[in-house]
Amino acid sequence: MRTGMMALACGLLLLRFLPQLPPLAALLPLVGMALLCLYRRHRAVALFLLGFAWACLYAHQAWEGRLAPELDGRTLWLEGQVTGLPAAAEGIVRFELEDIQARLALPQRLRLSWYGGPQLRAGERWRLAVTLRRPHGLANDFGFDYEAWLAADGIGATGSVKDGQRLAGAAGPMAWREAWKERLLAVDARGRNAYLVALVLGDGSGLGRADWDMLQDTGTLHLMVISGSHISLLGGLLYALVAGLARLGAWPARLPWLPCACAAAVAGAWGYGWVAGLEVPALRACLMLSMVLLWRLRFRRQGVWWPLLGALVVVLLVDPLVSLSPGFWLSFAAVALLVYGFAGRLGRWPVWLAWGRAQGLMALGLAPLLLALGLPLSPSGALANLLAVPCIELLVVPLALAGSLLLWLPVAGEGLLWLAGAVLDGLLGVLARLSWYSPAWHPMAPPAWSILLALAGTLLCLAPAGLPLRPLGLALLLPMFWPHASAPAHGYAEVRVLDVGQGLSVLVRTRSHAWLYDAGPRRGEFDLGEVAVLPTLRGLGVRRLDVLLLSHGDNDHAGGARAVLEALPAARLISGEPRRLPAPLAAEPCRAETWWLDGVRFSTWYWDQAADSNGRSCVLHIEARGESLLLTGDLPAAGEAAWLASHPGARADWLVAGHHGSRSASSAAFVRQLAPRAALVSRSRHNAHGHPSEEVLQRFAERGVRVHDVAIAGALRLLLGQHGEVRGARENAGFWREK
Predict the structure, then answer these.
(1) pTM of the model
(2) Which end of the chain is more exposed for a tag (fewer CB within 10 A), N or C?
(3) Are residues 549 and 673 in the same domain?
């Protein structure tokens, strides 16, 4: 049975690693091969093929349910019910809509934003005018994958609300959750109400950026929303209550205590998960606990791995796309590590020693997986969890749940919630200090072979004492932490036009130097410098910038600079508009200069006659082995003419289209003189400015200039000096990314 379950799970998990979905026509022969294998008693192979076929079929159905391409960008009237708990921040209300009704076929789950919208409540029904968009996110080689997150959450389209009217008030369980949230926010909990809402209802929207950063730094992110440990704790307490009554003789003799204890634990766990809205993490935890209790009742002879494999298979059969979520891998890996680290060991462990060993297992065992998923490592994680887990699980969560259930008795309920808040306040103070002294470590992305070696090394390190070659495990871990930066050879320059939405950021690396031209925009707390630029720099192993060149002071070019400089030092900060940069950035003015770095020529230029901000853009020209690239920021046509006058006979093989492809730049004379092979356009899809301009695109087409669009191809990469082609981040990405 165990082999068959593992084969089925592997088939279901294979979906996660596909660059493209196989055509539907190929699935029928696949099922036929599986049936033939069953006939020949090759059960494991048959289950693997069936699992893979089911996962692909499920993904095809999910993709067919997404917004049709012809409706992308259209504004439609529709009706639907607000689901989940809406979140409001900086004048923007974000929420999800289900049970969609419209004249056209639309996805049944939408994620919407309403700028300046009214207060929404879960369970309300609205009629809305929405500009719909197909699921689409930034596509860089590193960083958070928004499209994978949307796919795992079952979101078929996103959109922005233009107008709307409420058709019906809040009703049903979702309205009850909303009212519960408001009660929790209204009580005195020492200012930690948002944390209590996250722990009780699984809604972390009230936590700010600083809160999430602190939790990430200390490796305690998993504790501050409803997680598997919280649900397991409640189920374990209910199980222990029935078992304790039976041991004391207080349980009715006519009722078998074991089935009743399991039933009580399952009911409590699913009830807690239902309170949290049965989102993917809570659903996964409920299924896992149910499988453990089923194993306790009927399948104990199958071994301790059976409930974990069973839960894995059930979760993947219900929703194979859940494997796109990092939380899926981390939760199952954590349980597997605990089973591997404790099962089959001789002797009994003292509680304090077992608890310390569990944290060591997590710290060492999850490190390769965290790096493989592009997540940071927490140096203080083991110590922080050693304190935080029992504090949260044994004190805060029981107090918060009990206080929430007793809110109808104000003195008792509010008193318990105040006590939970006081405990949280003390714990968070300690975590804040740990975060200050030991922030999260963001290593460069290791190659796949080093991750595989590290996984093997982890299994050896955590194996029972006395196993031969066990010390070799530590040696196998080392390549994962060893720098593997693939810097360009001498005389070449690697250029990456990053996907930062409606903005610009270009990274240029030579053999031993790194320049960053612009840092993308910042909109409120959403900072593209932090979200897109920094993950790329860290993933490539860039720990220091030789020059951060901000073309001018507009937000779409300089907004992300502060986040970049707070994380990475820059030897020089240059800008065409140093006085317009946000404090405390202090830049030197752009002027005509030339550098030779690792055999690559960099030169800057500034238009002295500029009359506006765009005209003050600092121009950068890069040349490597006879191949060149030109970046002009938002320089208008008059500035381009001035650049041509000061650089007679200049050419550029690659041109980053000025002002995101606006018709105010890339003039006919400029394009004719430069004669570029291709133009690179950095902009966002459906931007309000209509970039790139049809006039500019026509101008490029007339001169035979190919256009590479970041909004379509993702982040663009080329090796200057090789005279090769440009590569988009979406080319070899996973099947869930729109090509």
Answers:
(1) 0.89
(2) N
(3) yes
